């Protein structure tokens, strides 16, 4: 634990002197090299235990990795070695795509925040599935969520086809599947959060899942990831559709388009989704409303702005069953994982 903290404290200044996306790629490649060496793998290993349940799945602890950090599923085992209770990778699209032009990721260190407009950059479904199948963590009892989206070139009116392709591809290899309809960086994607659009998409996915369940002899839980930029009525509509379409969970929330909390900071006017602590309160409001509307048994994953154990506890108290980290890891390092697990354990009493 102290090694994780001290090592990251030492390397962070160098990483923060680089372009944010280059630093991201270097961090993942370095983490993978450290994992591939047995000696450094043991030094990086952490396994905080706090058994939990999510969508009927047994978690080693309720602190997971959010999608977006490992878009191609190429570093599952190395990331899991840091102590996560579950790992979500993607977003993957049926076809490879480069995403938006660079630069497309920006740090706002005064707010411990990021803005990104990556745009679902990934190597496509075939490479993604090969990477997932090569990972060992799932065979060792780890829980993996696979996050699916649509290609930027696919017209929004044909989006359902991309999601069906994604679901069919990932289904045999996932412990749960997340439907990402909330990235702000794919044109018109958030329109799928509307009542009729969401109902059509989830209805088609429900029917496809029934067929896949028969084919593979197992039922894989389905979750939907939504935006923080929703008013109470919009959250209520989404909750109603989720309940009616046999969805198992909801992830609240993705990045925000709001800049209220970072106005005046360098890079605050860059387009894209804002992540980090400025999203925390927005996410809490959505989680609390979802819990109120969906009742006590529906699974909610709280994500957005967790930079401390206390903020993880606040997500749980708002109604989340588990939490996910992303931007907090970039600013705080992997020691944040154990901090969150221990804070949740203490709050449970």
Please, could you describe this protein's structure?
This protein has a single domain, classed as Aldolase class I (TIM Barrel), CATH 3.20.20.70. Helices cover 42% and strands 16% of the residues. The chain has helices at 2-16, 20-36, 38-44, 76-80, 125-134, 159-170, 195-216, 232-244, 280-294, 309-318, 327-332, 335-348, and strands at 52-54, 57-59, 63-65, 86-92, 105-108, 113-116, 143-148, 176-180, 222-226, 249-252, 273-275, 299-303, 322-325. An eight-stranded parallel barrel has the order 3-4-7-8-9-10-12-13, surrounded by four helices. Strand 8, helix 7 (195-216) and strand 9 form a beta-alpha-beta unit. Helix 8 packs across helix 9 and helix 9 (280-294) packs parallel to helix 10. It starts with a helix and ends with a helix. 49% of the residues are buried. The mean pLDDT is 94.
Spell out the key features of this protein.
TIM Barrel, alpha/beta
Helix/strand order: HHHEEEHEEEHEHEHEHEEHEHEHH
Q: Please name the CATH topology.
A: TIM Barrel
- Could you name the ranges where pLDDT drops below 50 across 5 or more consecutive residues? none
How many structurally independent domains? 1
What is the CATH homology-level superfamily? Aldolase class I
Major beta sheet, specifics? 8 strands, parallel, barrel
Q: From the alpha-carbon coordinates, what is the Rg to the nearest angstrom?
A: 19 Å
* Strand-pairing-aware structural class: alpha/beta
Oligomer: single chain
**Beta-strand proportion:** 15-25%
Mean pLDDT: 94
Strand order of the largest sheet: 3-4-7-8-9-10-12-13
- What is the helix fraction of residues, given as a range? 40-55%
Helix tally?
A: 12
CATH class wording:
Alpha Beta
